[in-house]
Write a structure and sequence with these properties.
Radius of gyration: 22 Å
Number of helices: 5
Order of helices and strands: EEEHEEHEHEEHEEHE
Distance between the termini: 20 Å
CATH class of the largest domain: Alpha Beta
Largest sheet: 5 strands, antiparallel
Strand order of the largest sheet: 2-3-6-4-5
Strand content: 35-45%
Number of domains: 2
């Protein structure tokens, strides 16, 4: 995946409900950027559904999707988190967290039943929301004199970079995400401006 210039994620949060023999499975899908985002959504759902018996989840983060975690939250091992992640992966999504809240209905569903329920709830939530492509960005810091602000910002805009942070004093510091597909062009143009320092952020 490292040659890819785009990654796929969901546009906005969505949720769907799946019922089986009295048990309710409510799947919430969220676009996320960081582990902190995942934790906050989980905490807020635990507050919103204090009577639910399980809050199972899976998330996948990073442009290459190599940060992920699954949790069965007390369900039999492999019956909740893995099926949720399986649905995320079948759509090749990253920067996404799906949390499924379960209310027990009194009838045990067994392992196949649980796997099917968590899978179905997740699939339904993901079907309801558009998948979008976002450019993979490489982070850079630009240091320059205030008088060069217009020249720098023009390149940033034309190359479709996103501004992540900015400090303006006598000298300006700009943190930008440069789309991988426009990296050579953007760096070439920025380096053409006299005395602009361009540094890759590790």
């Amino acid at each position: 995946m490292s040659d890819a210039e785009y990654y796929q994620t969901i546009e906005k949060p969505s949720f769907a409900e799946f019922k089986d023999r009295g048990s309710k499975f409510i799947a919430y899908a969220y676009p996320v950027q960081t582990l902190e985002d995942c934790k906050q959504y989980l905490q807020s759902l635990k507050k919103e559904h204090p009577k639910a018996v399980h809050h199972c989840f899976a998330y996948r983060l990073g442009w290459d999707g190599n940060i992920f975690r699954v949790s069965d939250d007390g369900e039999p091992s492999g019956t909740a988190g893995r099926p949720i992640l399986g649905q995320i992966d079948s759509k090749e999504l990253t920067n996404i967290s799906v949390i499924v809240v379960r209310y027990f209905g009194g009838t045990l569903l067994g392992v196949p039943g649980l796997i099917q329920a968590y899978k179905s709830a997740t699939a339904m939530a993901l079907q309801l929301v558009p998948v979008i492509q976002k450019p993979i960005e490489v982070m850079y810091e630009l240091h320059f004199d205030y008088t060069q602000m217009n020249d720098v910002m023009m390149i940033v805009k034309q190359c479709g970079c996103s501004v992540v942070g900015q400090e303006n004093q006598l000298f300006c510091l700009l943190r930008v995400g440069i789309p991988k597909s426009r990296l050579d062009e953007a760096l070439h143009r920025l380096n053409d401006i006299r005395s602009v320092e361009v540094m890759a952020v590790k």
